[in-house]
Amino acid sequence: MTIASLLLSLLACASPAQTPPDILIVVLDDIGHLDMQGLSTPNLDALAAGGVTFTRCYSNPTCQPSRRAMLTGHWWTSNSGVPCAAADSLTPVSGERFIPERLTGHTSALFGKWHLGGHALGGSWERAPQAQGFDYWSAGTPANLFNTPCGSTGYNSWVRVDAWASSVSTAYQADELRDSFVVSWPLVSSPKFAVVSLALAHLPYHIPPGYPSGLTQLQKYQAMIQEADANLGALLAVVDLEEALVIVVGDNGTPPQFAARAKGTTYERGVRVPLVIAGAGVTASGTSDELVHVVDIYATAIAAGGGTVSGGPYAYASRDLAPILTGSSWTPREHVICGDRWGMAGE
Q1: pLDDT digit string (tens) for 142-160?
Q2: Which residue in 7, 55, 275, 329 has the fewest CB atoms around it within 10 Å?
Q3: Is a pLDDT exceeding 70 seen at residue 139?
């Protein structure tokens, strides 16, 4: 046998290189673990049927520290500020590495709300996600869709960021966000990583297009939850679950308008949130009663994507949920930390 034929034989027997899966994180806004009960959510239900639903997932009591925990892997208990308000912008802590900075082989994109402070290196606020590893920001909003220093006043008048430039849009934000992902995701080669940060069902409460008029505030909120589920269905229609790990999670609990001891508190209604994980690498199914926290999304996404979690200014709190997702041995947690203290300099 010649050397050339031997090499060809060895190559033929070698295992092909494993391509890491695509990763999609969909963040629901102001939807607690009880808020979908009694509502029609067929798309989340279908996703859950093929994956794991966590019944004891906890967040922080408001959205900013929860989103910070998801993307940095730390017990984060301070709000991060609005990027375009200089007086209220806490830039990321030196040494932090967001998920896309760990998934260096993935093309990464953020769709929707950032709400995590200004540019880490002092650049324009429109490029704040880019400073933390995101390659693209599409149908972006710097903060909430009402009364922000950035200029948004509602779902039909909002500051929109595309390709690191901002403008004001009067199109319905939920539709624009949905369509931006649906068009973009199939065009990008794998492996890819995306965070779709829905504004639904955060106030201002309104009646989404196609829903009946005359709804109460609670009914508007519930209609917005159902619209979030419809948008989730549109997102999943362009995602191959055999090639992508999909994580759907809430950022905090029920708005205080609709329940006592809710958002803004560390009671159950304020910090217990939905979490469903399905798709590539998930071989278990059903529900898990293990105690988990949104901080665990960090290690779970990075490990699935072939990255490593190490270094950084603090010890990482995040734990890879893969053992639960594959039915393997898991050491139960004794506690999680849920908090929200405005203006802290660190953890």
Answers
A1: 999 987 788 899 999 999 9
A2: 329
A3: yes
